[in-house]
């Protein structure tokens, strides 16, 4: 198939998916409204069904989907539902101990998206307040934003977690870059920059693979260990963590102009592309796990595709095609294997896996809300209709 044929095929797929997305999201918006979903049961979303209730880190993705659809279509139903969810999320800001490093996921896609689109001053205040909470987690001797809280000790079976940073936080620090511009206070951006530099040094390996968790002595800032996280084992390559790195470092380049971040994003992207290229462009849960049992994580594919499209915006025209074509291959492969376009059922993308070692199986290859968000962002980016939320 020649280059022209590939472009025509991709455009035909994109146009078809967009039309299905309009139908699916219209139906979901009517059913779900201001509920805050995570994963459907028997084809239907239920309110606050994820871990952590109102504080669950995934609760920004539904309003993020709604704002993206409002940007693309102008339909007021999306705006009204998104605003209703945002008001419910005030409870998160009132319970301060429930806010951790994921403040960006929660409030960039809800309050900050609202402010960017409508100029709502109350939404701006929510975003700045959330940024202050995120900045307050910065460890100045180690130059990192602390991950999670002590409750994760039981989850991972580890000891002291007060010195942990994780790759996921690269997607949260854009909240700090935004807050710096809004308040004209450089401290927010300085914290984000120092965290990203630490992640460059300790999270990303020479071959472009990534650690999920890096542990430091919280009193001295000295490196301690890189314990295993949500992937197969210590030293493995958890695919969603890889996707956070691709997108997160590309965004840090966007916000700072530091070319080293662009190069790191490329390094991580090439690692992801090479691994998915030998697996029919589908993301397994861990790129360094045994071949059997075969476990997929569609969320990693959707996030990686968005990261590649972000990268494509920051490279020359002849390099751009490499990242765009890879994004198309991932999106099309995942759509063919995982998508459910039935408007009578909630959720689009099946096949999401929360962590590799899930003894219950309840979080292995299931629909997860953030797969849908990143699919929508990727499709709307390719259509030139996306709201920039990061």
Description of the structure:
This protein is mostly helical. It has one domain: Alpha/alpha barrel (Glycosyltransferase), CATH 1.50.10.10. The chain has 14 helices and 5 strands. Helix 2 packs parallel to helix 14 and helix 10 packs antiparallel against helix 11. The mean pLDDT is 96.
Helical/strand content category: mainly alpha
Strand percentage, roughly?
A: under 5%
Number of domains: 1
Radius of gyration: 19 Å
Helix share bin:
40-55%
Strands, total number:
5
- SSE arrangement, N to C: HHHHHHEEHEHHEEHHHHH
Key descriptive features of the protein:
3-stranded antiparallel beta sheet, mainly alpha, Glycosyltransferase, 390 residues, two-stranded antiparallel ribbon
